[in-house]
Design a protein that fits this description.
alpha+beta
Length: 164
């Protein structure tokens, strides 16, 4: 069975959806105007259509970034090239609030052969995972020696959590 990487909901995904939606709304408003005067219709179409195109383009860029990130994480997961990192701490990310809640982030550390310590962050979790860890070592999938692109397989050390 092929495993898929989980990205979760974050600010970039929400902005992509909102901007794309508003962009479509403005573009549709420019295409089907309700103004009666011809001169006003042209100005209205240019204004609403231009703003709509900007919003729509920004939304598509945000969504494309998320799709690319998901594809890269799936590729990392399928490659099987990982390192074992130790879970250092679980933090609440106060910089992000989604649906009135702050997400948790698990930070893990890996010491390479040169003695450098690399710190990796998991995807957002909307529950406190601290008491649920089955192991203190987690797989971090990386691209060879390039640790800038990584995927922390936090699901590998957590039981399946079903929220009701």
């Amino acid at each position: 069975m092929e495993r898929k990487a989980k990205i979760g909901i974050d600010v970039l995904l929400i902005l992509g959806i909102v901007f794309t939606g508003f962009g479509l709304f403005f573009i549709l408003g420019a295409v089907f105007p309700f103004a009666l005067n011809i001169e006003e219709t042209v100005i209205f179409k240019l204004t609403f259509g231009g703003v709509g195109l900007i919003f729509f383009a920004l939304g598509l860029v945000f969504l494309a970034i998320k799709v690319r990130q998901k594809q890269r994480n799936n590729r990392l997961l399928q490659s099987g090239n990982y390192i074992m990192a130790e879970i250092a701490e679980t933090k609440i990310n106060y910089n992000v609030m989604i649906n009135g809640r702050f997400p948790y982030v698990v930070e893990c550390q890996y010491r390479d052969m040169a003695g450098n310590i690399h710190i990796f962050r998991s995807r957002y979790l909307y529950f406190n995972p601290e008491a649920l860890f089955q192991d203190r070592m987690v797989k971090v999938y990386v691209e060879g020696d390039n640790y800038k692109h990584y995927y922390v397989d936090i699901d590998g050390v957590l039981p399946r959590v079903i929220r009701h």
